[in-house]
Write a structure and sequence with these properties.
The chain has about 160 residues and is α/β, with parallel strands linked by helices. It has a single domain, classed as Nucleotidyltransferase, domain 5, CATH 3.30.420. The chain contains five helices and six strands. A hairpin with a 4-residue loop joins strand 2 and strand 3. The radius of gyration is 16 Å and the shape is globular.
Length: about 160
């Protein structure tokens, strides 16, 4: 499976894909916004699905603190986004040392073009977290040549992203 995660302080975007290398197609299995305990449960389920030396792939939107520009924002902050990334890296380690690919947030602009569908925004102007996770996963599969475009992803009735 390929797990794409958009970590956040409050909400976590999560998308899970299965990939069929013979068909060069992917299936979107889950696309939702979760909290950290739910993310832990999903990784526990993923651990139960592993067979032998099988591994999953984790695509995670990267996050860095910027104390020069937003330093005051991070004072007395528990850094839940960083904690989420740490939890993902630990889960990947537990899941047969699965690879973790850290993607920069800037790929969202190109990813949205590749995804070629209207992307609803939250009232604050940001892309919905689950859609962001989907874009990160789709962008990675396209950039690695695993699929040609998002038409190669079966969305299971979630066409209205």
């Amino acid at each position: 499976m390929i797990f794409a995660i958009d970590p956040g302080d409050v909400r976590i975007g999560f998308a899970a894909f299965t990939y069929d290398a013979e068909r060069r197609k992917a299936d979107l299995r889950i696309k939702q916004i979760v909290d950290l305990p739910t993310l832990y449960q999903m990784f526990t389920l993923a651990e139960g699905m592993l067979q032998g030396d099988q591994r999953h792939t984790f695509i995670v939107e990267n996050f860095r603190t910027d104390t020069q520009v937003r330093g005051v924002t991070f004072q007395w902050n528990e850094m839940l986004t960083s904690q989420c990334i740490g939890a993902v890296k630990y889960a990947a380690y537990r899941l047969n040392d699965s690879p973790v690919i850290m993607q920069e947030p800037r790929i969202l602009a190109m990813g949205r073009k590749w995804c070629d569908f209207p992307v609803p925004k939250n009232p604050n102007g940001h892309i919905k977290d689950d859609t962001s996770a989907y874009i990160h996963g789709a962008h990675w599969m396209i950039s690695k040549g695993m699929i040609d475009n998002v038409d190669d992803i079966l969305k299971f009735g979630q066409e209205s992203m």
